[in-house]
Specification:
Beta-ketoacyl synthase N-terminal domain-containing protein, Peroxisomal Thiolase, Chain A, domain 1, 2 domains, single chain, alpha/beta, Thiolase-like
């Protein structure tokens, strides 16, 4: 996948826009707060105690469903346009790839006990969400170039494969790639609590729910440089894998995640020495922690992973589902731009609960020049 570069970033999160949020995350800052609309019973005091989450207050206050996601998405896309100095009229030959999350957890929740018949969970964002984002964001992206993917965390690797194909064939000049997710809807929180995925007073090893929209723009390197674009990362490769075990079928042995990470690292085996910056969606769930730990054991022979710098976006932003992959890209690219990545390469590894895993490698285009200083 050589020849593809990241030329813009956009984020709407509990920590604000992409520059502010990534700086705050690096400093270990978060804005977790009590969610007054939902709580769990504390057995010690026999009363309902609000859970903590990472909301994009006040951006999403008072909005639900697709309206909430439109608020997140338009804010993030506006942030991307400002970051990359793109004007809306320049987007006529641009594709939009949007990941909105799968229905895996909803299906598990609906099929398990605890939900009365006739009260189904929300079906999730509709495929018209991309159209709404273009309409409200004033983006003249042709309808034929708006693509919606219903994948989870690993979806960023899937999308990159398709986007690179369009760019290689010169069908488009650039691709806007992103994800939107909110785990703060009441019905969603009820389902997550029932599945014992949420961090509550009675389940301290769950995750904190969050919400975010994250986007980045991808272009071919030559025309991007020709127009003087802001180039802060090069896409090296992507990798996908699957394993039979999912979140509710038994403990993960890390095979799928290790395969995705190892396959991605193969692309830089001969050109890189020393540790890489690793970003993974470890979120407080013991199942994912087991997967992460066993994957590292399987990859113990890789010198690049013996003492890696590891960052976990959910620590700062909460669980953001389909938005986590693009959010991790934003964090890695900002680390390159501000020279604190500590490595010329970033490995982004994403685990989805249904069994799919994705990984990608980014390279800092300024690294060689920095080393010569």
């Amino acid at each position: 996948m050589s020849g593809m570069v990241v030329t813009g970033l956009g984020l709407a999160s509990s920590l604000d826009d992409v520059v502010t949020a990534c700086a705050a995350a690096r400093a270990g800052i978060n804005r977790a707060r009590e969610l007054a609309a939902f709580g769990a019973i504390d057995d010690d005091v026999v009363e309902v105690v609000p859970i903590a989450g990472h909301s994009c207050h006040p951006l999403t206050e008072g909005f639900q469903g697709d309206a909430r996601r439109i608020r997140l998405g338009t804010a993030a896309l506006g942030n991307l346009l400002a970051y990359s100095a793109l004007q809306p009229e320049e987007l006529s030959r641009t594709a939009l790839f949007l990941n909105v999350g799968s229905s895996f957890l909803s299906r598990v929740g609906e099929s398990s006990a605890g939900f009365p018949e006739g009260a189904p969970l929300e079906s999730g964002p509709s495929s018209s969400l991309a159209d709404a984002l273009c309409q409200f964001g004033g983006l003249p992206i042709p309808q034929a170039l708006r693509f919606v993917l219903r994948d989870d965390h690993h979806g960023v690797a899937t999308v990159l494969h398709d986007a690179c194909e369009l760019l290689r064939r010169r069908v488009v000049e650039r691709c806007l790639i992103g994800g939107i997710e909110s785990f703060l809807e009441r019905k969603t929180l009820e389902m997550l609590a029932h599945l014992r995925l949420l961090k509550t007073v009675g389940n301290p090893v769950g995750f904190m729910p969050g919400e975010a929209a994250a986007f980045f723009s991808l272009e071919r390197a030559a025309p991007a440089r020709q127009r003087g674009a802001r180039i802060e990362a090069e896409l090296v490769t992507t990798a996908l894998s699957n394993e039979e075990m999912h979140r509710f079928s038994g403990p993960s042995h890390g095979r799928g995640l290790a395969a995705a990470m190892g396959n991605a690292l193969e692309a830089i085996r001969d050109s890189h020495s020393g540790p890489v910056l690793v970003l993974h969606n470890l979120n407080g769930d013991p199942w994912r922690a087991m997967e992460w730990g066993t994957a590292l054991v399987r990859l113990a022979d890789w010198e690049m992973l013996r003492e890696p710098r590891a960052w976990f976006p959910p620590l700062s932003f909460g669980e953001t589902g389909a938005a986590t992959g693009p959010l991790a890209v934003c964090m890695a690219v900002r680390a390159f731009a501000r020279h604190y990545a500590g490595s010329p390469h970033a490995l982004i590894a994403m685990s989805s609960y249904a069994g799919s895993k994705g990984a990608l490698v980014l390279r800092d285009p300024r690294w060689d020049g920095l080393q010569k200083r």
